[in-house]
Description:
Blueprint: E1 13-18, H1 26-38, E2 43-48, H2 54-66, H3 72-90, H4 95-117, H5 121-131, H6 133-145, E3 153-156, E4 163-167, E5 170-173, H7 175-188, E6 193-197, E7 200-203, E8 208-210, H8 216-226, E9 231-236, E10 257-259, H9 260-268, H10 279-285, E11 289-293, E12 302-305, E13 317-330, H11 340-350, E14 355-360, E15 366-372, H12 373-386, H13 388-392, E16 398-411, H14 421-431, E17 436-441, E18 447-453, H15 457-469, E19 474-480, H16 484-504, E20 507-514, E21 518-521, H17 528-531, E22 541-542, H18 545-552, E23 559-564, H19 569-572, H20 575-580, E24 584-586, H21 591-594, H22 597-610, E25 614-615, H23 626-635, E26 640-646, H24 649-657, H25 664-673, H26 682-685, H27 688-700, E27 711-712, H28 725-730, H29 736-748, E28 751-759, E29 765-773, E30 785-792, E31 800-805, H30 809-827
Parallel strand pairs: 1-2, 1-9, 2-6, 3-6, 4-7, 9-11, 10-12, 19-20, 19-23, 23-24, 24-25, 27-29
Antiparallel strand pairs: 4-5, 7-8, 11-12, 13-15, 13-16, 14-15, 16-18, 17-18, 20-21, 21-22, 26-28, 26-30, 28-29, 30-31
Amino acid sequence: MSTEPLPASSPFLHVHKFGGSSLADAGRIASAARIAAGSPGAHRVVVVSAMQGVTDALVALATAARAGDDTTPAWTALAERHRATALALAGADPAPLCDRLALESEALRGDLEALARATGDAVVRLSERIWGHGELCSAWLMQAALGGEAAGWTRLDTREVLVVRAADMGAQVDRDASLHRLRAWRTRHASTHIVATGFVARTTDGEATTLGRNGSDHSAALLADLFDAASVTIWTDVDGVLSADPRLVPDAVCLPALSYAEACELAYFGAKVLHPRTLAPLQARGIPLAIRNTLAPARPGTRIDARGEAAASPVKGLSIVDGMAVLELVGSGMTGVPGVAETLFAALHDAGVSVTMISQGSSEHSICCVVREVDAGRGRAAIDAAFAEAIAAGQVEGVRMQDGLCVLAAVGDGMVGVHGVAARLFDGLAQARVNIRAIAQGASERNISVAIAQAHATRALRAAHAAFWLSPQTVSVGVIGPGHVGRALLEQLAEVIPRLRAEAGVDLRLRGLASSRWMRLGDAPMDPASAAAQLDGDGAVPCDLDAFAAHVRASHLPHAMIVDCSASDAVAERYAGWLAAGIHVVTPNKQAGSGDWTRYAAIMAARRAGGSRFLYEATVGAGLPVVLTLRTLLDTGDTLHGIDGMLSGTLAWLFNRYDGREPFSALVREARALGYTEPDPRDDLSGLDVARKLVILAREAGRPLSLADVEVESLVPDALRSVDVDTFLARLDLLDAPMQARLDAARAAGCGLRHIAKLDSEGRATVGVQALPADHACMHTRLTDNLVQFTTARYAENPLVVQGPGAGPEVTAAGVFGDVLTIAQALGAGPRRSP
Length: 835
Ligand SMILES: Nc1ncnc2c1ncn2[C@@H]1O[C@H](COP(=O)(O)OP(=O)(O)O)[C@@H](O)[C@H]1O
Ligand SMILES: N[C@@H](CC(=O)OP(=O)(O)O)C(=O)O
């Protein structure tokens, strides 16, 4: 660290400002001190705010004192908070620091007592002193954390040097007087580095004052100018200036660079991270500003300078100013009359009402301006008075007032000369069903502002944010059932999501994962690669499907989808509700498609009502395009005559292998060992699973078939139907003799055996073993191949055949993923769900 005395002004000097969030407790102050001490540059000026919450407490104390309330408990708590922080920071010898803070606390107590009795100007003077107490204390704390005078850090009470006078536009610095006082201060303090109190200043009369709430940013900029600093860094608790307030828009992104003008507009329109008056002194001197995160100091943050930087979106940031009202002067007599606007704004000026936004239609029939709600009544009275004569003469109707509004501003240098920006903003707001009360765009085209109902503020901000920062194909995804298929799907998602985002604009965000017992929900997208492994770890909560769906249907993301990879009927029971709520559903779970007809019909109706999609390609033939092929045939006007084929990979494998050389039971055991069968092979041999698939296909073709309507031949002997699995496996050879007899009979007729599902032209559905001639397509399959033949009007002589491996987690997951993509890719063109 340099020990050269600090020059009166230096281009090698860097200003660092730490806000209250960075000084919330002793640990944070120590981190801030490490950042300041370790930052580059020969000389540093560290500007501190009060510890988090302290200014609020002081404002409340002053109010209580004026009201004659007992301030002792709150005063004691505040003094104790500073003392406890000092003890934690000061190490072996905390007494000097504690004494300093005790003196400050005593001064505060004196001011509070005086304020309780004060009258006239003294009320303002004492209040200002009280409000600034927090910065005086935190500067002592920070100086100690940095090692004090011994380490070259001198404390500057900014009230000694920063001279401001009250002006129309807020406190105005007297630069010459301030420079003069700073030089004088420098002659008395030969320090290398400085810790300066933010927020506080002195009036031209030498009284203590403040720069207004959140004014420490402004202090840092003013000191940077006075010290001729090379840069200013504002350290806070977020990564930089974000595209919107992260408390309202969870998907807000950190903006790498902004121009002074962009930052100024955003700050003026409510981006709390930066005080609006900070930019002017820096811009005037060309001093660059960085906003960085004390909690993550390695991150680059936001750079603000004259250059700014072009970005992908023409709009850099969105912000909201709450508590606004519209005043509208209306009257046909105003048209073409010069001076109306002048009279109106002069009236507002005289009443001390500041105008945030102005809009006037070209008919000049009305002039509308947006002011702060608290000023609106005063503003209206002032305009009414100014136009009293015109109102009496009937030329002007009077002033209409509407409160309960806020102003949403979209800001960006990139908007200049670019068409479609306003359209995108208004479209986003329209999608969210937000009514726009007034619109203004300055001729700089750097800001479009709209006045909207306060009640719609968050919804509007999220919708506008989605319109500019999210792809229309951004989908909030929740996956249920991390079994074999679910896990394979998560692996595939992990591999493909980055490419989909970069190349196709499809932005799939895994925000929830649930098993039958646990669920994990994330606001930030979860990593699909590790999500399943972490499911029952820290942060997991017991599964609640309502909460899961509510989270997935995030109001700040344009679309939501639940992928059900469970085999649960209870989950299928939820589909109708989810679809009606606009959540798309994708599943390989056969329960809904083949279960109770009334529920199936309700699901299909909910899908239509919610404008959402329900896809289940992987319920039949795993990753093979079976449902899609049938759908396409029907959608293009073909007529289905029949479906037949092998719909079970397990049974296909068994009959492919079964040639009489090995008993059927041995093959069942082998298939089980290879993982081809369900743990209880009766689930396959019963034919029920195949029957479910046939029902799904029949319903797809518009036939109201139910499971009970399918004639299913079970391969499980009656005697083994209700025994436990072990007994069943032990007595499996009961299958052998009857199966051998069927094989012999088939062979005698020149045929072989296959397990076939069939839906005929009359709608009759059957599932069972059939003897097929050697030239039948099903006799030419391999391993676990499924084969589905569609006989239709167009494919009458020679059916359309879909064939390929029809089982296994990877191919099934790929079928599910295909549905997810089908939905996501179509979203770009379709309407967005309203947030
Ligand atoms: N556009 C925005 N970008 C970043 N932060 C914002 C924005 N709008 C509002 N904020 C809020 O501003 C906060 C930082 O301001 P503030 O609380 O005054 O910080 P500090 O205490 O460090 O001075 C952030 O925690 C964030 O919640
Ligand atoms: N402490 C003052 C000044 C300030 O700027 O604080 P912060 O940097 O924490 O916003 C306030 O709360 O208004």
